Amino acid sequence: MPVKGSRETAAALRELSKFVATPISAASRFALQPTLKTAKANARNIEEKERTNTLANSLTIKQEARTSKLNPTYQVGPDSSVEKQTQYGLRRPVKYAHLLEFGTAPHYQPGRGVVHPGSRPEPFLTPAYFETRDQVVKRFGDKIGPEMEKRAAKLAAKQAK
């Protein structure tokens, strides 16, 4: 039994793919807002020797550098451009966020000539992910579904002309 309309369907899907990058990006950013908010709150609760909130203020939603336009990947994490001068020196959260999240093992510090005892993990992103993952999926679906239907309807109207 021959299949009819497959060429037209394939052409329509190729055309639709040109219009999906913007709604996918917008839906991804919208969906990750609860995770960002929770991660910032968690970061503000981490005990520091000084309270600067630099880590919490640096958290943002960013697109992965090596990602395709049609299949973008977004993540919550510290912005590399954020830095703050403090009495303990320049703080750049992108340089130490992973050390807070996962902790460190005891290690030798050659510049100081001492063995650092390590630090316990202070996770702020992982709990934010687990707390909001269902909400993120729902928000993405709620945002992307109507937008894709609208774009498909526009494309169908264009094809009908």
Describe this structure in words.
This protein is α+β, with helices and mostly antiparallel strands. The protein has one domain. It is built from six helices and six strands. It has helices at residues 6-17, 21-31, 33-44, 54-58, 93-102, 125-160, and strands at 59-63, 74-78, 84-86, 89-91, 107-109, 114-116. The strands form three sheets. It has a two-stranded antiparallel sheet with strand order 1-2. Strands 3-4 form a two-stranded antiparallel ribbon. Strands 5-6 form a two-stranded antiparallel sheet. Strand 5 and strand 6 (114-116) form a beta hairpin. The longest helix has 36 residues, at 125-160. The protein starts with 5 loop residues before the first helix and ends with a helix.
Secondary-structure topology with pairs:
Layout: H1 6-17, H2 21-31, H3 33-44, H4 54-58, E1 59-63, E2 74-78, E3 84-86, E4 89-91, H5 93-102, E5 107-109, E6 114-116, H6 125-160
Antiparallel strand pairs: 1-2, 3-4, 5-6
Using brief descriptors, characterize the structure shown.
161 residues; two-stranded antiparallel ribbon; two-stranded antiparallel sheet; elongated
- In N-to-C order, the SSE pattern is HHHHEEEEHEEH
Mean of all residue-level pLDDT scores:
87
Helix count from the secondary structure assignment: 6
> Which spans have pLDDT < 50 for at least 5 consecutive residues?
none
Count all strands and give the number: 6
Q: What would the principal axes of the Cα set say about the shape?
A: elongated
Radius of gyration: 23 Å
Distance between the termini: 30 Å
**Total number of distinct structural domains:** 1
